[in-house]
Specification:
The protein is an all-alpha fold. It has a domain of about 80 residues. Helices cover about 50% and strands about 0% of the residues. The longest helix has 17 residues.
């Protein structure tokens, strides 16, 4: 007696949509319309700080290094502190600002090491914190330049 039992698959279950499911579907259907809303738009990043701001901080940090008094040191720290949170500044600039922020304190003795750490950061500030503009790409119809070598111009070419 050989009996085979066949099991049939009942097929996909049909679910009746409930009120929460319908509300969720309605919400999802309306999302593309909300994408154009100003509430969903990404905020515009603040403008890059002007170079005069970095130059001013540089001169104040150098004064702090030279004089070792509270007024220029406090001012250097207070100018560097908000720039540390600026979203458009590169990490190398923020590292330099951090050094100025940490080292610009009045010390018991104005040692060479103290002055040199502040001076080095202050001198590099304007170069490191410069706005880097994207480089222009060559035109699509321009003749390709050979890679490597001296790229000498052939006098027999146009």
């Amino acid at each position: 007696m050989d009996r085979t039992v066949s099991v049939t698959h009942p097929g996909p279950r049909r679910l009746r949509p409930s009120l929460p499911h319908l509300a969720l579907l309605a919400l999802l259907a309306s999302l593309p319309l909300l994408g154009a809303s100003p509430l969903w738009a990404a905020p515009e990043p603040p403008p890059f700080p002007p170079s005069a701001e970095f130059r001013s901080l540089q001169l104040i940090a150098l004064a702090c290094s030279r004089e070792n008094t509270a007024e220029p040191c406090d001012k250097a720290r207070s100018l560097a502190d908000p720039l540390l949170d600026h979203p458009r500044l590169p990490a190398s600039c923020k590292d330099t600002l951090w050094t100025i922020r940490q080292r610009s304190v009045v010390a018991a003795s104005n040692s060479f090491e103290r002055r040199e750490q502040i001076d080095r950061a202050a001198r590099s500030l304007t170069a490191v914190c410069r706005l880097q503009l994207p480089t222009a790409k060559p035109a699509a119809n321009a003749a390709p330049r050979p890679q490597g070598g001296l790229n000498l111009i052939n006098p027999n070419q146009n």
